[in-house]
Each structure stands twice: as structure tokens, then as C-alpha cells.
């Protein structure tokens, strides 16, 4: 009689939890149950730590700058400018294809106004807002890959560009007074 060895079973990851790969790339908050705005079905979101949240925790940006970034990100998502497209599982005969809703068109106008105020998407601040806040790339990834006009810049300089863009954005959204002293880390810095 031969000895049969049992194959070791490979543990499967549950889909209700973040994968090992995701966990090695930063913190993941507890799962939040919510309703899908379009269908109303319950969904479960795992919140990840974002660039703006980390910068706020480290006192690199003010709460007003963080709020301005969150407003811009929300408008960017509403405008469907993230480039991720999905196809309809059920195709309607005689359908017109992907048409913009009034909400998306309004959000696109607001994003266009912000980009025009920043000098356009080809400027350092416009490109940084688009990629880091809108598309949620990391500052390092944007600085090394895209940078300014396609030229790589050092990541600390990229972070400075993001801080400047968020300060202007906070003033644009009326979160700080124009001309007000919006220096970051005022309390921590005391002149000698």
C-alpha cells in the first residue's frame, strides 16, 4: 500500500477584506457600509489613506486646504473625468450611448473654471491638481512621471507645488479670505 500525501490547501483570500497586496501599500480604514447612489443596493467600501489626509495629519496643509482638495476631488469624480469607463451590461435598443447628465456637465464646468484659474492643465499647479487630487496619483508618481510639461521634478518640489495649488484652491472656494495669511505651520514656526 502506498502512502498518499495530502496536498496542502492554499488558503483563499476573502473578497470582503483588502488583499495582502493592498495592505502593503498603506493603511486601510475599517469597512464602511453604504448604499450605491444609482441603484440603492448596499455596498461595502474600504477607505484608504489618501495623500491629502496624510498631509493634513503631518500638518503640511491646513484644514481649509484639505477641504478644498476634497471639494475638487468630489467635483472631479462627479464630472467622470477619471478615465475609467464601464460598459452597460444591458444594452437598450435605440439608446444614444453615453450622454452626460446635467450634474456631470455642471461639474465639468466647475472643474474647467478651476483649471482656467490655475493657468490650464499644462501649468505646474494645474497638472498637479489634475493628477494628484483628481486622479489620486501620489505626489511622487506625478513628479517623477508627469511633472511639469512632461519633465520630471523632485518629489519635494512636487509637494510644494501641491501645497501652493491647494492654497489657491481654498481661496477660490471661499474657505479662506483672499490675501489672508495662509501660511502652513504658523504655530510651529516662531521667528528668532
Question: In a nutshell, what does this entry contain?
Answer:
It contains 7 helices and 2 strands.
What keywords describe this structure?
192 residues; mainly alpha; two-stranded antiparallel sheet; disordered C terminus
Describe this structure in words.
The chain has a domain at about 50-80 and about 100-175. Helices cover about 40% and strands about 10% of the residues. It is built from seven helices and two strands. It has helices spanning about 20-25, 50-55, 65-80, 100-115, 125-135, 140-145, 155-170; strands at about 30-35, 40-50. Strands 1-2 form a two-stranded antiparallel sheet. Helix 5 (about 125-135) crosses helix 6 (about 140-145). The protein is extended, with a radius of gyration of 22 Å. The model is unreliable at about 180-190 (pLDDT under 50).
How is the secondary structure organized here?
Elements: H1 20-23, E1 28-35, E2 42-48, H2 51-57, H3 63-78, H4 102-117, H5 124-134, H6 139-146, H7 155-172
Helix pairs in contact: 2-3, 3-4, 3-7, 5-6, 5-7, 6-7
Amino acid at each position: 500500500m502506498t502512502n498518499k500525501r495530502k496536498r496542502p490547501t492554499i488558503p483563499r483570500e476573502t473578497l470582503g477584506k483588502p488583499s495582502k497586496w493592498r495592505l502593503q501599500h498603506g493603511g486601510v480604514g475599517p469597512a464602511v457600509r453604504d448604499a450605491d447612489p444609482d441603484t440603492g443596493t448596499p455596498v461595502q467600501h474600504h477607505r484608504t489613506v489618501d495623500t491629502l489626509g496624510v498631509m493634513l495629519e503631518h500638518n503640511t496643509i491646513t484644514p481649509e486646504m484639505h477641504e478644498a482638495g476634497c471639494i475638487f476631488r468630489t467635483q472631479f469624480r462627479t464630472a467622470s473625468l477619471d478615465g475609467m469607463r464601464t460598459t452597460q451590461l444591458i444594452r437598450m435598443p435605440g439608446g444614444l450611448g453615453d450622454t452626460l447628465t446635467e450634474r456631470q456637465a455642471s461639474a465639468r464646468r466647475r472643474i474647467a473654471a478651476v483649471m482656467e484659474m490655475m493657468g490650464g492643465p499644462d501649468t505646474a499647479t494645474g497638472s498637479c491638481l489634475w493628477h494628484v487630487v483628481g486622479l489620486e496619483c501620489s505626489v511622487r508618481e506625478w513628479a517623477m512621471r508627469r511633472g511639469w510639461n512632461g519633465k520630471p521634478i523632485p518629489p519635494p518640489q512636487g509637494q510644494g507645488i501641491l501645497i501652493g495649488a491647494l492654497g489657491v484652491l481654498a481661496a477660490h472656494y471661499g474657505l479662506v479670505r483672499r490675501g489672508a495669511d495662509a501660511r502652513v505651520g504658523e504655530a510651529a514656526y516662531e521667528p528668532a
